[in-house]
Amino acid sequence: MSNERASDLARQCTELVRRGSDFSTLWFVLLESHTLVEGAPQQIVERDRRLLNIPLVTGEQLIFDADVREFRIQ
């Protein structure tokens, strides 16, 4: 398993999205085969916002909020 932490992955993804990458590209190029990613993204609703929830092998969730173009760990 990678020595990378989930918070590092969230930070890297946020930087890429803010530089212009869309989620689909990010998924296929980085996330789909990443050692921390355990499964496919699922859409969730939180406080009237639609988010993407990506399960991680650490038991955490990588959450993508397209409205603010940010990834966070939950």
Tell me what the structure shows.
It is built from two helices and four strands, in the order ααββββ. By secondary structure, it is α+β, with helices and mostly antiparallel strands. It has one domain. It is globular, with a radius of gyration of 11 Å.
What's the short version?
A hairpin with a 5-residue loop joins strand 2 (49-55) and strand 3. The chain is an alpha+beta fold and 74 residues long. The longest helix is centred in the N-terminal third of the chain and has 13 residues, at 6-18.
Which features would summarize this protein structure in a list?
74 residues, alpha+beta, four-stranded antiparallel beta sheet, globular
Number of strands: 4
> Widest sheet: strand order?
1-2-3-4
Task: Kindly report the average pLDDT value.
Answer: 94
- Reading the helices and strands in chain order gives HHEEEE
> Looking at the structure, what is the overall shape?
globular
* Structure annotation, total helices: 2
Strand content: 25-35%
Q: What would you call the structural class?
A: alpha+beta
End-to-end separation in angstroms reads 20 Å
- Profile the largest sheet: 4 strands, antiparallel
Low-pLDDT residue intervals, each spanning 5 or more residues: none
Helix content: 25-40%
Domains, number: 1
Q: Any idea what the radius of gyration is?
A: 11 Å
